[in-house]
Design a protein that fits this description.
The protein is an alpha+beta fold. The chain is built from 3 helices and 8 strands, in the order αβββαβαββββ. The chain folds into 2 domains: 76 residues, no CATH class; 68 residues. 22% of the residues lie in helices and 41% in strands. The longest helix is centred in the middle third of the chain and has 14 residues. The termini are far apart.
């Protein structure tokens, strides 16, 4: 992977995805010349706070690990993002396995668990406007054994 400026990473992202890069006012932008960009923000109250990852541009594994560090620093219960990749591959990406599959209110859902005993809930979001591929809301609970009432 090459070193790029922030503007070069954004241009690369917009050309690859067809999306416009827009940072919400309450979001934090993290930049690394070799690894890319992550944009995230806090959502929810102190008991149910979530680190919402709006963008990951570049090295997804690096930013995935970094998001967990930031979420821990901000005392978040979970990390949420939108998955634009094949859902089973995404679950394997964070060393997870599918525990349960079901349909709820017409949406495909998955409950997954990683090797550390942390749960993830993935809910079908719809087709991506640019690619036509399935997308999912993905929520990873950071404490082993913690999961929502499903």
């Amino acid at each position: 992977m090459n070193f790029r400026t922030k503007d070069e990473w954004i241009k690369w992202y917009e050309e690859k995805s067809g999306d416009s890069f827009v940072v919400k006012g309450n979001a934090a932008l993290y930049f690394h010349a070799k690894r890319g960009i992550m944009v995230c923000r806090l959502s929810g109250d102190s008991q149910e706070s979530m680190l919402v990852v709006d963008y990951v541009i570049g090295d997804g594994k690096f930013w995935y690990d970094f998001a967990e560090i930031i979420a821990d620093m901000w005392n978040c219960r979970c990390v949420g993002t939108i998955c634009t990749r094949h859902i089973e591959a995404y679950i394997r990406f964070w060393n997870g396995r599918i525990v349960k599959k079901w349909v709820q209110e017409g949406q495909k859902r998955f409950l997954a668990k990683d090797r550390r005993g942390r749960y993830g809930v993935l809910t079908y979001r719809g087709k991506d406007d640019n690619t036509g591929k399935d997308t999912y809301f993905a929520t990873l609970y950071l404490k082993p054994g913690d999961k929502p009432n499903l």
